[in-house]
Amino acid sequence: MGEQLKIVCWATGFKFENGAYEVHSRDGRFQGFCSVASLKEKGLVRRIDHTKKAEAFLNTDEGRAWFRKNRTV
After folding, report:
1. What was the pLDDT predicted at 34?
2. Where do the structural domains in the chain lie, given as residue ranges?
3. pTM score, whole prediction
4. How far apart are CA 26 and CA 8, in angstroms?
5. Residue 14: predicted pLDDT
6. d(Cα 36, Cα 54) in Å, to the nearest integer?
7. pLDDT on residue 3
8. With b meaning 16 or more CB within 10 Å and e meaning fewer, what string describes 9-38?
9. Which of 37, 49, 55, 62 is most buried, judged by most C-beta within 10 A?
10. Residues 6 or more apart from 19 whose CB is under 8 A from it?
11. Cα-Cα-Cα-Cα dihedral of 53, 33, 10, 4, to 10°?
């Protein structure tokens, strides 16, 4: 199992059209931003302030690989 990730905050009007999540490791290190719209397309987010399913996904092997490929630093 890889490093645990946590969505610590979200914002709209960033580089992403529908907002972004700021992701940190569980020990507080910044890991990058990910697009809320991309996670909506995967069916993991309905509203920007609902992060439970998205965070659970980011803590799977598939989710960590997706995040590494799609994050913005």
Report:
1. 93
2. 5-70
3. 0.87
4. 10
5. 57
6. 9
7. 82
8. ebeeebebeebbbbbbeeeeeebbbbbbeb
9. 55
10. 10, 11, 12, 13, 35, 36, 37, 48
11. 40
- In whole angstroms, what is the distance from residue 63 CA to residue 61 CA? 5
List of the chain residues with pLDDT < 50: none
Residue carrying the six token digits 């397309």: 41
H or E, element range at 24: strand 20-25
Residue carrying structure tokens 């580089």? 15
Both tokens of residue 14? 């960033």
Q: Could you tell me the end-to-end alpha-carbon distance of the chain, in angstroms, rounded to an integer?
A: 23
Residue 45 DSSP class: -
Longest dimension (CA), the chain: 34
Q: If you ran DSSP here, which 8-state letter would residue 3 be given?
A: -
